[in-house]
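Work Package 3 (structural annotation) set out to generate three-dimensional models for the target panel prioritized at the project kickoff. During this period the team completed the workflow that converts sequence records into discrete structure tokens, so that structures can be stored uniformly alongside our sequence database. As a representative example, we reproduce one entry of 115 residues exactly as it appears in the project archive.
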Amino acid sequence: MAAAANALVGSADAGAVVLEVLPIIVAETVYTLESFYEMDRKEVASKLLVFLQSRGIKAHEGERVLDALARHRDYNIHFADAYLAAAGAETGLSVASFDHDFDKLKDIRRFEPKA
């Protein structure tokens, strides 16, 4: 499997194909590398940031995903929370959450839902 994946990425790098990467695939990749393979969060985020900006790679919601990976790397928050924060920062919308990790991010407005 690894050889086939490397060949596909090589084809993208050579300009033969364009690989379209959805945000959910980035999230699953982050989760798998960090939990199953026990890779360091900063290493995973840094490598994915490089990969997603490589020739032949088209990241859907590219700027938001790159922002989310940087937040995940820099603020020690889960990728899903980092993605939500990136969306909030991009749109200017507040984030409804009980998670105080969002308070680390000064460009995000978080509020806790009330009963």
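The longest helix spans residues 23-36.
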